[in-house]
Write a structure and sequence with these properties.
Elements (H helix, E strand, L loop, with lengths): L9 H12 L3 H14 L4 E7 L5 E6 L6 H6 L27 H7 L2 E7 L6 E7 L2 E8 L4 E7 L6 H5 L4 H18 L4 E6 L2 E6 L4 H9 L7 E7 L4 E7 L11 E5 L2 E3 L2 H10 L12 E6 L5 E2 L10 E2 L2 H18 L41 H6 L3 H9 L8 H5 L3 H5 L15 H4 L5 E4 L3 E6 L2 E6 H19 L4 E11 L2 H9 L1 H7 L2 E6 L2 E8 L7 H14 L8 H13 L9 H11 L15 E5 H7 L2
Parallel strand pairs: 1-7, 11-13
Antiparallel strand pairs: 1-2, 2-6, 3-4, 3-6, 4-5, 7-8, 9-10, 10-13, 11-12, 14-15, 16-17, 17-18, 18-22, 19-21, 20-21
């Protein structure tokens, strides 16, 4: 039998490795930014076009590379970070696996420009699909510039799996945030399609958070600081009253590396136990420093999940530190009783010696004496009232004399007995709908009954209303007496600006978009003023995390998000008129049987089905 095992060519092996390293444009951004940080850069610039599908460029002022290093950096398993296997357990750098540039070059057009400080000229290398196209000397400033063009040009199937530009841009911004938050000592800037998105100067951790998420974030932060032999914790948590329905502002950094850990996240939730509204999540920006020998970073291709040596100790320390900070800054209740200041000893009596009170008793006091009795009830008046007791009953005898004739004229009323259980006139006015556990509406039909899910039914009604308003542009808006000023981050502002026209067609009126502030002067009739912020936050989160394909437009996504936010919730009590109105509006919809998320809005139970239950 012929041999069937063969060695893969380098370009095929590189493409397979690229499947692990490069999942989307954000993966390329992460690898290039980490390489720039490892090179000792103080200023890093990120330039992207078309959500990274056309161009991803990272320019830094780091150490640069020699001619040999520049050429060798595109080979597989080449790195300057480790020498032996033991170095994997003492890592202080970002990239170390040696597959990043080789994998990127296998699926894109890559152009590298680099120069060291002591060199007069630099080098330019162009690679297309793992093949070196050209290598020339070039005049370039100190540092490195890497341009990645036409990502997945030779793997069209992978390119087709990429999501829409807004979704891919959001992933890139997330990676940019994670790296910028971990390194406030570096200048970061980001440009998308020629527009300036971020320009972050060197600052401390608190100022970096404020620069990314908006100026009003400062008042929401509670500092956390704890230093132990096992773990050093620093950073901030958000105040409970500013908790959001989304998890967008939750960041863990271990040794300046962003990680995801459901176990440590549970520790934070435990510290906030009893302080958060239902359905909301606390914000946190926590920086953990541990001994590199106690963690294993190389357990996941993206290196966002790490293994701790002693997770239980970290859990307890993290929970206690956050709980202590919340109590220290009077965010959480502490075991101390409120003291009334009026009970405190005045300063003038501070050194005064207290004296025992003297009690004086009038030993000659007699409550039954003549003198004392005259002060209260007079004894003479008592005697008179007792002597004239017979006068109280004068006239009662005449009133009580009732002739027997009077009883013969007494008539008794009796209810009319009919053979019908219900009056035909009142039968039509009987209640037709009932609410079950404040969740379902029971409605009778000829063949049996309907069980309607009130939340899903209202979603369907609102969804079709919003679609009609956006299409026909007939939405009614209610003007606010005092405009609302809402603050969002730069990314959220850009999302709202892209949806501004469609939101105005649903009834929203925006008076201005200024820096990180949005002023709302009008809202749809179905939206209360207190819910405007929650509705817009939910909409932004849906746009960020939703993955609409070619079958769904942005209008459809907008209508779904608004319907989900404004629909009546499970547990809300409805009057009989509200129940009947909801049922009537539901069956006036085009697709009454399913919600916007393709779930059933009602089920039918026939009389035969009910009969079977009693057999």
């Amino acid at each position: 039998m012929a041999d069937i095992i063969q060695l893969l060519p380098d370009h095929v092996a590189n493409q397979i490795a690229a499947g692990e390293v490069v999942q989307r444009p954000a993966s390329v951004v992460k690898e290039l930014l980490e390489n720039a940080i490892d090179a000792g850069a103080t200023t890093i610039k990120l330039i992207i076009k078309d959500a990274g599908k056309t161009l991803i460029q990272v320019i830094d002022d780091g150490n640069g590379m020699s001619v040999t290093d520049a050429r060798l950096s595109f080979e597989r398993h080449t790195t300057s970070k480790i020498r032996t296997a033991e170095d994997l357990f003492s890592l202080h750098t970002k990239g170390f696996r040696g597959e990043a540039l080789a994998s990127i070059a296998a699926i894109a057009h890559v152009e590298l420009k680099t120069k060291q400080e002591q060199d007069d000229i630099g080098i330019q290398i162009k690679i297309e699909g793992s093949e070196v196209v050209s290598q020339d000397v070039i005049a370039t400033p100190k540092g490195t510039s890497v341009s990645v063009k036409n990502l997945f040009f030779n793997i069209p199937a992978r390119r087709n799996f990429l999501k829409s530009n807004p979704v891919e841009t959001r992933h890139i911004i997330d990676e940019f945030h994670r790296i910028a938050l971990a390194h406030p000592n570096i200048n970061f800037s980001m440009y998308h399609n020629g527009s300036d998105m971020f320009n972050l100067l060197v600052s401390n951790h608190r100022q970096r958070i404020i620069n990314i998420f908006g100026g009003k974030t400062n008042e929401k932060l509670v500092p956390v600081d704890e230093d132990t032999e096992v773990l050093k914790i620093s950073g901030f948590v958000g105040k409970p009253e500013f908790a959001k329905k989304t998890r967008g502002e939750q960041f863990f950094f271990v040794n300046s590396r962003f990680i995801k850990s459901a176990y440590l996240n549970h520790a934070i939730n435990s510290a906030f136990d009893g302080l958060l509204r239902e359905g909301t999540h606390a914000s946190y920006f926590l920086y953990l420093e541990v001994d590199p020998k106690t963690i294993d970073i190389n357990i996941h291709p993206t290196k966002t999940e790490i293994k701790f040596d002693d997770e239980h100790t970290l859990y307890a320390l993290l929970r206690s530190s956050v709980k202590h900070s919340l109590g220290q800054f009077n965010i959480a209740p502490v075991l101390d009783f409120d003291r009334d200041s009026s009970m405190d000893t005045p300063y003038v009596f501070k050194n005064k010696v207290s004296s025992n009170p003297n009690i004086e008793v009038d030993r000659s006091f007699n409550p039954f004496g003549e003198e004392k009795a005259s002060r209260g009830f007079s004894t003479s008046s008592k005697k008179e009232s007792v002597a004239n007791w017979e006068s109280l009953y004068v006239g009662l005898e005449s009133k009580s004399n009732v002739s027997s004739k009077d009883f013969t004229e007494v008539q008794f009323e009796s209810d009319e007995v009919t053979s019908k259980m219900f009056d035909e006139e009142n039968l039509e006015k009987t209640q037709k709908t009932f609410q079950l556990h404040n969740k379902y509406i029971v409605n009778t039909i000829k063949s049996g009954m309907l069980l309607i899910n009130q939340h899903r039914a209202h979603q369907r009604v609102l969804y079709e209303d919003f679609l009609q308003h956006i299409t026909v542009k007939e939405a009614v808006s209610q003007q606010l007496l005092f405009p609302l000023s809402l603050e969002f981050s730069n990314t959220e502002i850009s999302i709202l600006q892209s949806l501004k026209e469609q939101l105005e067609q649903t009834g929203f009126v925006f008076s201005k978009f200024e820096n990180s502030v949005v002023e709302v002067s009008g809202v749809p009739v179905s939206v209360s003023e207190s819910n405007v912020s929650l509705v817009l936050e939910q909409l932004i989160n849906d746009v960020e995390n939703e993955v609409p394909n070619s079958n769904f437009s942005q209008t459809d996504l907008l209508a779904k998000s608004l319907a989900k936010s404004l629909a009546i919730k499970t547990g809300q009590r409805l009057t009989i008129a509200e129940q009947e109105n909801l049922v009537n509006r539901l069956f006036a919809c085009k697709e009454a049987s399913i919600s916007p998320t393709n779930k059933s809005t009602f089920v039918t139970m026939s009389v035969e089905d009910l009969d079977k239950k009693f057999m």
